Amino acid sequence: MPIALTLLPRTVMIGTFIVTFCLLMAAVGRGMGETYAVFLLPLSSEMGWERAGVASVFAAFIMAMGVFSPLSGHLFDRYGARFVYMVGIACLGVGYCLTGSLNALWQFYLCMGLLNGFGAALIWQVPAQSLISRWFDKNLATAISFAYAGYGFGLLALAPIAQLLIHSHGWRGAYQYFGIAILCLLPLVAIIPWKRIEQGAPGNPRRTKAGRAEGGYSLREALGTRVFWAMFVIYFMTSMAIFGVSIQSVTYLIERGFDSLEAAGAFGIAGMLSFAGMFLTGVAADRYGRPLVATISYVLTIIGVCGLASLQFVPEKLLVFAWVIPYGLSMGARGPIITTLMAKLFHGRGLGAIYGMTIMGQGVGAGISAWGGGLIYDLTGGYNLTFSISIISALFCIALFWLVPEIRYGRIDAVAKKPE
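The structure assignment produced for this chain is given below.
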């Protein structure tokens, strides 16, 4: 069923616009950040840094994005969408413009890490989940997954562009061009009628009267539930399964004999497949249940990691698709499942902050994984330990989806006792 059919006829246009806008913000906030894998080797070559040092910049970015997510939720709940999107876009645009003139590692931590991580936290998951859940109900996972797929769309579009810009203008010029393009989005965000959009669709249980949610759980109350911490751990372990591998993938392929454009292209194809994977996962979760669909997704991650590792032993370039296809289809696919569950269990005045707090788990896990992957390479000269950690983390997440009742059955007893 097309997403638009889940809305009343007079709200179809608004609902479609919201999903499309959130898709664009995912591409800018998260997809652009993921292109760091393309910049990793040029940075390492020019700066003379060890692999752990270069990877730690991305680790700082992804960790900052997670750590600032609770603040993003609080700001959204209190000041609304226009404020968080404009501040977020401004931070990202300025951050990428400044990155082109940096010369010291600590400057990258401040600019690429803190500033860009804060900007990405403001414009990606937290506001998207809050807005979309007010406009879609029955097929909420489908709608959220479509918007989340912007992460893959951004990676698909921006990774090859980044590689071309690096070839023609160097990595510094590439970042400055990206920063200018992002700042051009500010007028678009300024003229959007946010008051109408923030209210939500008529008949939606999460609709608000004046653009501010009421009732439901507060962040403090949510912290006392088992399901909150289970989802926090799932986000953390999923990041451990993904980021240590993904940030090193382009460099790993180059070391296996691929040229830089081939490696970036393979990474871009994985991004394209993640676009499809996130959307298909959301549709399947609406129909077949969270545990089964999540399990299939994690199994695909494991297969992809094994495929990437096999290139060490079978130097056949076509084997790269044993990584690209399953790994790409599973990248980011768990996010819509957890996001939908949280929107239904914790909708109300604290949803943005609650969801932001769980994403902190994602940021911390991703930061540790990305930095750890570089450190493991420096210490061992290879990636096999990183591959093993990825597989073990995925298996742990599968267990949580089946063993935690609130996640398996999609309900929490205390919800019935909370005020609407």
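Interim note for the steering committee: The radius of gyration is 20 Å. The CA atoms of residues 10 and 198 lie 16 Å apart.
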